[in-house]
Amino acid sequence: MSRRMKKNQLESLRKMLNEQKQSLLEKVKTNVSSSKEDLPNEVRDSADAASDYYERELAWGLSETERMRLQEVEDALERIDGGTYGKCEGCGSQIAPSRLEALPFAKLCVECRSKEEQSKKNNF
Ligand SMILES: [Zn+2]
Fold first, then answer.
1. Which CATH superfamily is domain 7-123 in?
2. Distance (Å) from CA 108 to ligand 1 centroid
């Protein structure tokens, strides 16, 4: 019980993640608003084209770091819904709540994170 995150804690992290997601999506809208005029209206009628368009929109509107961040935020929201949030993907242990408050989209505990960074450095 004590190892599980409290419900209100989880809700406040979900709120933080949603706010980050919104601000990233706002950025997309602002950045691409000038390019939108190039796009024919009928493109929006097709679901496939809409999804392509969404990807292009992301590509235009966000830097790679921001796109990765958006992905991380969306993944974290999915983990909250799926009930796996707060669990380290590396070792399966509970990520410290203080770490999640600082980095709500963290997938790895501090130890696994530093191991990962170590191995990345070795690859370079
Ligand atoms: Zn871990």
1. DksA, coiled-coil domain (1.20.120.910)
2. 5
